[in-house]
């Protein structure tokens, strides 16, 4: 987990952003939560560790992480956005349309598509992606 935290800290510093104690706590908490939580959940968790960190600081830091491509909001039927960390520029989910269970996977089947087809066809250079595949999990298929 320390390596994951360091990747985000290094990326912030490399882009010229100061690593404040609040930003460090926010990144650490986001990583500790598996890179998935709503802004309110994150603000509550950070506030438990550092009572001086306000909700707006958490929201602004999430905006910064999203603007830098280090996090992305996802909407998986809960209404509120949940934020996921983009550790290597991409993130993948399998979402069961019956029970709502979410499975993460790291294998990136889009690298070839992104670099060849998308660039050639649309003259668009992909910097990252968030992939959600919807279907039925093995438990729901048995029913």
Count of the domains: 2
What is the C-alpha radius of gyration, as a whole number of Å? 17 Å
The total count of helices amounts to: 6
The string of secondary-structure elements, in order, is HHEHHEEEEHEH
Category by helix and strand content: alpha+beta
Q: pLDDT average, as an integer?
A: 82
Q: Which range does the strand content fall in?
A: 15-25%
Identify low-pLDDT runs: none
Strand order of the largest sheet: 1-3-2
Q: N-to-C terminal Cα separation, in Å?
A: 37 Å
CATH class group of the largest domain = Mainly Alpha
Classify the fold: give the CATH topology of the largest domain: Arc Repressor Mutant, subunit A
Describe the model.
The protein has 143 residues and is of the alpha+beta class. The protein folds into 2 domains: 2-85, Orthogonal Bundle (Arc Repressor Mutant, subunit A), CATH 1.10.10.10; 90-142, Ferric-uptake regulator, C-terminal dimerisarion domain (Dna Ligase, domain 1, 2-Layer Sandwich). It has 6 helices and 6 strands, in the order H-H-E-H-H-E-E-E-E-H-E-H. It has helices at 2-14, 21-32, 39-49, 55-67, 111-122, 138-142; strands at residues 36-38, 71-74, 82-85, 90-96, 102-104, 129-135. Helix 2 crosses helix 3 and helix 3 crosses helix 4. The protein is globular. The termini are far apart.
Q: Which features does this protein show?
A:
143 residues; alpha+beta; Arc Repressor Mutant, subunit A; Dna Ligase, domain 1; 2 domains; 3-stranded antiparallel sheet; 3-stranded mixed sheet; globular
């Amino acid at each position: 987990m320390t390596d994951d935290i360091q990747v985000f800290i290094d990326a912030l510093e490399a882009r010229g952003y100061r690593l404040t104690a609040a930003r460090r706590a926010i990144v650490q908490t986001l990583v500790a939560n598996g890179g998935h939580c709503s802004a309110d959940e994150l603000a509550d968790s950070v506030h438990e560790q550092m009572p001086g960190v306000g909700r707006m600081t958490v929201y602004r830091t999430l905006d910064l992480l999203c603007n830098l491509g280090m996090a992305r909001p996802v909407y998986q039927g809960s209404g509120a956005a949940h934020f996921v960390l983009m550790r290597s520029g991409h993130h993948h989910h399998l979402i069961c349309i019956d029970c709502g269970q979410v499975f993460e996977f790291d294998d990136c089947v889009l690298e070839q598509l992104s670099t060849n087809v998308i660039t050639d066809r649309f003259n668009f250079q992909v910097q990252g992606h968030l992939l959600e595949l919807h279907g039925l999990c093995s438990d729901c298929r048995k029913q």
